[in-house]
Every structure is written in C-alpha cells, then in structure tokens.
C-alpha cells in the first residue's frame, strides 16, 4: 500500500486542509503484507472521523492500512473539524466540501473510480452520521454506507443543553432541523419513496454506548421502510477497541466487485 498525507487548498472552505489517502499497491515481497490492485481506477472508501478527532485518527487508532491491503481498496480520510459534515449556520460549508469538492479533488489527484458501484463511505460517531447522510442524500453516488456508533438521531442530539450553542452554530434553529436534509429519518423516507438507486446500509453500536438509544430508534424506524439495512450489536462502549474490530467487519460486508482479476506484484 501507499500512504499519502495530502495537504491541499479547498475553494469551498477557502482554507488549506488535509487528508490521508491509502492507495492499493500489488506486492508479494513485503513482509507480513500482500497488497493487490484490480486495475488503474481503484474502488474507494471515504472513511470519516468523529467529533473530537481529525483525518489522522483512523491510522493512529486502527490497522486500517493493513486491513485494506488485500482488498485493492483505496481509502480517503478527510478532515472536517466539529462540523457534523454540514454547511454550518455560522461557519464553514463542510457539507459542500465533503459531498462535492472532496471527491472531485481526490479523483483529480489519485486514480480513484468515479463509478457508483465502487464508491463507499463509512464513519464513527459524528462520522457515522456523515456517512449515512452522504449515502442517503446522494444514493446515485454511493453504493454502500456504514455507521459505527453513529450519532444518527441528530434531532435528539441538539436537545443536549450543554452543547446547544455549538449545535446552533452548526444547524441553526433546532426546530427547523426536523424534516430537513440534515435529518437522517427524513432522508431515509425520501430514499424509500424515490424510484432511484438505494444504497446498502450497515449499522452497528455497542450496547453500553451512550449513543445506543439513538441507534435503536434509527434501526426501528428504518426497518419499517423498504430499504436494506444490516444491523449488528454486541457489548461495547464508545471506544477504539470496538471500532477497530467493527471496521474489519465493515470491510467484509462491503459489496466489492469480485469479477476483476487482481494485479499481483513481484518479489
């Protein structure tokens, strides 16, 4: 695998920002690791961070590079600060950045596939919310999305009085959040009623996680819709041991194409 720390300028944010990118490399002689690639344009997973983290966190807390090496899967890990992947009421346009500008920039820099069936998104906590929002607002762009301990019931989250000023800076008037394009429950209903493509969703949460009730509400609501959801739970809290295990499960679950012949390296 190739690991690239990419600093670049965002026209949408009007600031310099950063992302880590993992690119497939076919290798045989690398000790303890065999990489593969399936062609010139790589399938890609956009891997999103949580509220208190940044673009470095998945590499620092998990073995994501090792996990994706045999899959021929590229991984893009962007930085979005504490934005909830939203065009903030008082702040930066992180939704426009993550949903439009970032994929275009990443594909201009690196050989990443633009095909829907080879584009996926996953994230933890705030990033789980962002992953589902990307897939549900742009089902024509993403074949699958995964939420690990996601903050999926954002309407309930904004009622937290301790964080209300911050949430108002992000979302504005909390009353206007219900039924908006930042409300995952509303987005799920829209996708269910549409005649367009439907993304596959994977959701997991530890039963001792403080976001577990939010996840149960979303699961129960989603199961009433004609959409595909894989839901898993097990004992666990909001911590990296759990997410390191579950990202491996996500990679097993992803609908990666199996019809291509891998390119293999030489010792």
From TrEMBL:
One of its GO terms (molecular function) is acyltransferase activity, transferring groups other than amino-acyl groups. InterPro entries: AB_hydrolase_fold, Esterase-like, Mycobacterial_A85_antigen. Keywords: Hydrolase. It holds the Pfam family Esterase. Gene3D superfamilies: alpha/beta hydrolase. The keyword Hydrolase applies. The keyword Secreted does not apply. This is S-formylglutathione hydrolase FrmB. It comes from Hydrogenispora ethanolica.
């Amino acid at each position: 695998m190739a690991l690239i720390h990419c600093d670049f300028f965002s026209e949408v944010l009007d600031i310099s920002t950063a992302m880590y990118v993992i690119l497939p490399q076919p290798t045989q002689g690398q000790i303890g690791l065999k990489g593969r690639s399936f062609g010139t344009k790589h399938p890609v997973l956009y891997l999103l961070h949580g509220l208190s983290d940044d673009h470095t966190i998945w590499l620092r807390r998990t073995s994501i590079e090792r996990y994706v090496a045999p899959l021929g899967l590229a991984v893009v890990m962007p930085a979005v600060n504490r934005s909830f992947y939203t065009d903030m009421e008082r702040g930066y346009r992180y939704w426009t950045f993550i949903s439009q500008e970032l994929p275009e920039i990443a594909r201009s820099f690196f050989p990443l596939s633009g095909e829907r069936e080879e584009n996926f998104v996953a994230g933890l906590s705030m990033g789980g919310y962002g992953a589902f929002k990307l897939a549900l607002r742009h089902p024509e762009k993403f074949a699958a999305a995964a939420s690990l301990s996601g903050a999926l019931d954002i309407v309930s989250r904004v009622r937290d009085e301790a964080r209300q000023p911050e949430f108002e800076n992000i979302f504005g008037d909390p009353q206007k959040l219900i039924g908006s394009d930042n409300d995952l429950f509303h987005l799920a209903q829209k996708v269910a009623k549409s005649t367009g493509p439907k993304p596959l969703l994977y959701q997991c949460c530890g039963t001792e996680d403080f976001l577990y009730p939010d996840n149960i509400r979303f699961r129960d609501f989603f199961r009433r819709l004609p959409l595909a959801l894989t839901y898993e739970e097990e004992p666990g809290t909001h911590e990296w041991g759990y997410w390191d295990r579950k990202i491996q499960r996500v990679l097993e679950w992803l609908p990666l194409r199996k019809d291509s012949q891998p390119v293999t390296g030489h010792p």
